[in-house]
């Protein structure tokens, strides 16, 4: 029996692009998808689908987590749409809606790498089972990726390499531009000692009219230590600085 609480958990932050030309089917499945997913984009054919797919990436910097597409459509069919999407993003997860009489297309889809099909007319139980399994895989993959982006600096202090944010107890710490550049440099390779000259040239790279020295660097370090007492930053005497990470 399907666990609806887990389905809701797995689907909470997953985005889906749904492409279907038949109005009645599109309306039926759209309503179902909107009960499951938080982000649902609906398209009327492959051409519309490709445009929304590319526009979504331009706006958000990420692709849809899942694409659900019909095969036979005007303007651009599902085969051509999937080829175009794979050309843009070869890792895209695609789920195909297929009628029993569309078997001639299935080999092309299998050759493209499609392994998941949902038959029309829709069987709700089968549909939800397939969506549950896919969303579960996406959920845990995202969780793994998110964990790999984090550097643990203390029990509550984390640096996110992807977003370039420092958080303490899940609260983002506001940093100045130079503090941010400094942390980004020192945490690019945790535990590595960066020499003073390298740090100064990086932090003050945009200040062409200034001649910063070690005193300027020490001032930033001092302010950062007061702002984030749990940050384990070590001064290697007469050489540079490094940040220690927490041991699990």
Give a short overview.
The chain is built from nine helices and twelve strands. With 248 residues, it is of the alpha/beta class. The two termini are 38 Å apart.
Strand order of the largest sheet: 2-1-3-4-5
C-alpha end-to-end distance = 38 Å
Q: Helical content, roughly?
A: 40-55%
Average per-residue pLDDT, rounded, comes to: 90
Q: Can you summarize the main beta sheet? A: 5 strands, parallel
How are helices and strands ordered from N to C? HEHEHEHEHEHEEEEHEHHEE
Give the strand tally: 12
The low-confidence runs, each spanning 5 or more residues with pLDDT under 50, are: none
**What count of helical segments does DSSP give?**
9
Q: Give the quaternary arrangement of the chains.
A: single chain
Shape: elongated
Global Rg: 25 Å
Helix and strand content put the structural class at alpha/beta
Give the amount of beta strand, in percent: 15-25%
Question: What is the topological layout?
Answer:
Blueprint: H1 4-11, E1 15-19, H2 23-36, E2 39-43, H3 46-60, E3 66-69, H4 78-88, E4 93-99, H5 103-112, E5 117-120, H6 124-149, E6 150-152, E7 157-160, E8 165-168, E9 171-172, H7 177-186, E10 194-195, H8 196-203, H9 214-227, E11 233-236, E12 240-243
Parallel strand pairs: 1-2, 1-3, 3-4, 4-5
Antiparallel strand pairs: 6-7, 7-8, 8-9, 10-12, 11-12
Helix pairs in contact: 1-6, 3-4
Describe this structure in words.
The structure is a single chain. The protein is an alpha/beta fold and 248 residues long. It contains nine helices and twelve strands. A five-stranded parallel beta sheet has the order 2-1-3-4-5, with helices on both faces. It has a four-stranded antiparallel beta sheet with strand order 6-7-8-9. It has a three-stranded antiparallel beta sheet with strand order 10-12-11. The radius of gyration is 25 Å and the shape is elongated. The mean pLDDT is 90.
């Amino acid at each position: 029996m399907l666990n609806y609480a887990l389905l809701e958990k797995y689907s909470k932050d997953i985005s889906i692009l749904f492409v279907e030309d038949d109005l009645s089917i599109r309306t039926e499945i759209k309503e179902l998808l909107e009960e499951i997913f938080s982000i649902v984009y609906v398209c009327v054919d492959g051409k519309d689908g490709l445009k929304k797919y590319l526009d979504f990436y331009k706006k958000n910097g990420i692709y849809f987590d899942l694409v659900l597409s019909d095969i036979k459509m005007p303007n651009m069919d599902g085969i051509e749409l999937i080829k175009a999407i794979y050309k843009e993003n070869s890792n895209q997860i695609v789920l195909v809606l297929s009628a029993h009489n569309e078997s001639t297309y299935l080999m092309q889809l299998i050759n493209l790498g499609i392994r998941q099909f949902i038959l029309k007319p829709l069987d709700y139980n089968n549909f939800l089972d397939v969506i549950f399994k896919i969303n579960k895989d996406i959920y845990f993959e995202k969780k793994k990726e998110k964990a790999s982006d984090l550097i643990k600096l203390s029990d509550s202090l984390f640096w996110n390499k992807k977003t370039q944010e420092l958080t303490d107890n899940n609260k983002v710490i506001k940093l100045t531009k130079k503090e941010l550049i400094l942390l980004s440099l020192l945490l690019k390779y945790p535990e590595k000692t960066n020499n003073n000259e390298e740090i100064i040239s990086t932090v003050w790279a945009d200040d062409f009219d200034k001649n910063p020295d070690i005193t300027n660097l020490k001032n930033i370090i001092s302010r950062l230590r007061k702002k984030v007492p749990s940050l384990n930053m070590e001064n290697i005497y007469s050489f540079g600085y490094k940040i220690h990470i927490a041991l699990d």
